[in-house]
Amino acid sequence: MKLFLAEDDAVLADALLTRLSRLGFDTAHAADGLTAQQRLLNEDFDAVVLDIGLPGQDGLQVLRNVRVHKPALPILLLTALDSMEDRVAGLDAGADDYLVKPFEFPELEARIRALLRRHRAADVQRDELRFGRLRLDRAGQRAWADNVALELSARELEVLYILMSHADRVVTKEQIAAELSGDGEEVGANAVEVYVHRLRKKLDGSGVGVRAVRGLGYLLAGTGDAQP
Ligand code: CA
Q1: At what angle do helices 173-180 and 154-165 cross, to 10 degrees?
Q2: Separation of 85 CA from ligand 1 center, angstroms?
């Protein structure tokens, strides 16, 4: 996990860097707003701890400028003042969380972990695919036609996921076999045919079908079925 700390108080920054590194976080540091902004725009971090009172450019301005380009980057603001205006300005500028100095280190640590967790949860959310009336939640290993759950095996679900993630394009049997293989297990083209055959039956009535494109592979397509 790569963190970024923007803090101009050298003593506090040192203490935080030491403790974060002990927790296994790889943490980069900047002591002024412009350097912080430049690094945040040009490098990738998993989460950011950003002091509001920074020389050069204050943390709120850094936050506003970075948010435009990195809407999903988790950012926690630090401020010396527990002022309502600062808190509101910080949240308005797109901060995910807010901590008032002085704080106890375990609280900062807990807040960082919560930020990272929420960020990962948001990633999982994006793992949801839609095609026609189908919806597939890969993390939850489930799929639905409208809101009716489809009873798919793990393999069938994975084949559906592959087809949905390449929607509107033909996917070859070999490509599906390659994506299903792994962990020392080889999946052959024959097995793919079996999975697709079963998947087709289970998609019956869903308005979506797996069309075989002779000699090429499979394509997910609408079937124009009536609503169930
Ligand atoms: Ca400061």
Answers
A1: 130
A2: 17
Supply 108's token pair: 């900062």
Q: What is the pLDDT of residue 123?
A: 62
* Those residues with Cβ within 8 angstroms of residue 163's Cβ, 6 or more apart along the chain or in another chain: 171, 176, 210, 218, 219, 220
Q: Is the pTM for the entire model greater than 0.70?
A: no
30 C-alpha vs ligand 1 centroid, how far in Å? 11
Those residues whose C-beta lies under 8 Å from the C-beta of residue 8, and which sit 6 or more positions away, are 31, 32, 51, 53, 54, 55
Q: How far is the CA of 78 from the centre of ligand 1 (A)?
A: 8
pLDDT surpasses 90 at 180 = no
pLDDT category of residue 125 using cuts at 50, 70 and 90: low
pLDDT tens digits for 8-54?
999 999 999 999 999 889 999 999 999 999 999 999 899 999 999 99
202 Cα: distance to centroid of ligand 1 (angstroms) = 60
Quote the ligand 1 centre to 52 CA distance (angstroms).
6
Of 203, 207, 202, the closest CA to residue 222 belongs to 207
| Cα 155 to ligand 1 centroid, rounded to whole Å | 53
Cα distance between residue 66 and residue 209, in whole Å: 43
**pLDDT band at residue 228 using 50, 70 and 90 as cut-offs:** very low
Q: What's the CA-to-centroid distance between 13 and ligand 1, angstroms?
A: 10
Taking the centre of ligand 1 as the mean of its atom positions, its distance from the CA of residue 72, in whole angstroms, is 24
Domains in the chain, CATH or no CATH each: 2-125 (3.40.50.2300), 129-222 (1.10.10.10)
